[in-house]
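dumping this here before i forget
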Amino acid sequence: MPKPVVAAVNGAAAGIGLSLALACDLVVAAESAYFLLAFVNIGLVPDGGSSLLVPTRVGFARAAEMAMLGERIAAGQALEWGMINRVWPDGEFAARAEELLIRLADGPTRAHAGIKRQLNNWLYQRMGEQLEFEAKIQQEMGASGDFAEGVRAFTEKRPPRFTGA
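structure:
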């Protein structure tokens, strides 16, 4: 898509929601928003492009931490890490996001399209290959005992007892 795409996160961007947000060109968030790679919490691996999108934004060390620990990242921390572009107070969020959208819509749209093509060409040349690899690993994890336990624990609102099965 040649137009800039903005994710305006006002709440949780978790699991595949995080993938969708990071697939956007710009990500803005309300102060109360948070970001979470929750897959590991039910015995799965990141998918939806997260294994490419997250390290591209925050680097390998932080991506590994997010993927392996499954902890919430507050909007302010996400901004510090370079995961997102802007954080605004909750009360100003809607108006500030709208201002940004108007600025982009009134800007040089052909230049925006060229910028997207340049950045995406460099960063995401192997995205199709990575998505296929994610799907393969996710299928393996979906057949595991740990995934079954993770889902049971989630529905029973208790901590999972993973065994490596």
